[in-house]
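Limitations
The structure tokens in this dataset are predictions for the assembled complex, not deposited experimental models. Users should treat interface geometry with appropriate caution, especially where small molecules or nucleic acid strands are included. An illustrative entry is reproduced here so readers can see what is and is not provided.
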Amino acid sequence: METRHFHHALRISEEGCIGCSHCMNICPTEAIRIRGGKAILYENRCVDCGECFKACPVKAIYIDQDDFSRLDAFKYRVALVPAVFIGQFPDTISRDQVYEAILECGFTHIYEVELGTTLLLAQVKEYSKTHPEKKPLISSFCPAIIRLIQVKFPSLVGNIMLLKPPLDITALYCRKQLTEQGINPAEVGVFYFTPCAAKIAAIKSPVGEDYSMITGVINMDFIYNKVKRILRKDKIISTRTIANSHLPGTAICWTLTRGESDNIPGRSLAIDEIHNVIEFLEKVENEEITDIDFLELRACDESCAGGVLNTANRFLIAERLHKKEPEPSHKLAIEKEGIDAYQEYLSRRISIQEIKPRSMMNLDENMAEAMKKMDKARQIMQVLPLTDCGACGAPNCQAFANDIVQGEAMIRQCIFVQKSREHTGELSTEESLEILKGIWGKDKF
Amino acid sequence: MNFVYSVEGGNFTQAGTASSQFKKVLKQLNVDHSTIKRIVVALYEAEVNIVAHAWAGTITIDLNLEKVRILLTDKGPGIPDINKAMEAGFSTASPKVREMGFGAGMGLQNIKNNVDVLNIRSEVGKGTELEMEVYLNAKDKA
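Predicted assembly:
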């Protein structure tokens, strides 16, 4: 198996990592091990959910972002701002004040990400009608969930609706609109403020699309600090309307839990937090749970309000956005201007390609080999203590046994095995210490 | 390769445990995911049948490159009329069991639709033995 230091958007700082194993223990796909006192990643298993980022006590895991100076390369600099960004600020700061401050940072245009939800909702309803075989239809919204399904639930890949998420629709719309205003597309840079790592990975290596319409990604914590400084310094009073549309409540709350499912007819469920999603999908896969029409699945607790790059508390963000909802019964009023003028153009481009499974659960591609390895792993399990202590540098005994049969670990790494062998004289105390140093690093001894 | 799981009758909170564990095994063995689905759906139905109807049961699974053979034996009331039990939607489940979301018919028909071989032997008052086989069509037999 390919091993490498952190990949995609999630990166690990070698100097920063203290090899504490918090990330290893929380990873929902068992993708992290400890070697030489540092966390390492089985890259193919990682779904970019960001649980490790949240768990790291020394902030050694960080999220790679595009350099802010990339803005300078473009004459027209579009900020794609998600509603959760506005939710970071207290009610005393208005949306337009925040937008003024964003422009102050160097952007020329602001587009609200959730603009695309109006069109998407109509398309989802249509899609669910024309694709009854995909029941339960799984939303394509959360990129970490799409990757999770590819890796861990390959038989459910076919249930994912093949429609662009709002971000991609809005990116397409803003590019089209600016082009129609006579702006040279090459002079337009589109930058998305992301609340999470998964969105970055999705933009840098899109699933179901050939390329992304988004030029770069700015981490939400970074831009928050920038905006916050401007707001504090200048006491900005906004007298104009900056973004070109006022979002209806449904759109503002789209990225929160139940934001999609509440608007989809039939039996629609919303499940947030990746471990909850895994538990639920296990049952869907067994057909223990049936008769559900639509599943809104989000990797973060409280959905995007719980994105790892948010500064404010997730419950407060959700509360603020719900309060901004002007009239809950007035769902997605169709406006005559803005994005609605592009309905046909966008609808024709809303589909994404088939999403392929990339199961990483198997012990070997070849079934006979896999069986041999499993046999061996089962024998190893007989010897292991089943304490899941993690001292071997793997998250639990089963993962460790699998690592051994894959040639990624040695049984001597188990501290219980070591003690037994020291007792029988098969292993010296010095050798035992060396093994532990190999896992946890020299500095700890 | 052999796997044995014991099933407790009447304990609905544990229903599906064996199916989920064996599903993990199949995924690790790189069995084609549509085949995994068929096996697990059939196994889950049969496992819940033991929980819903019998007092105790054992699931014995024998797996090789060609096929999975699953034997579910239980100590229970047995099935008086197997043909009738095979009918879709036929159910003897109590209202209590139905309230829990189970008991929509024994699902024998659903099992049959998902497996390649199905044999049922039953003795009233003693128990039932369900034998099923699914061919794996392993793409790359070594």
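Some entries come with short summary sentences. For this one: The radius of gyration of chain A is 24 Å.
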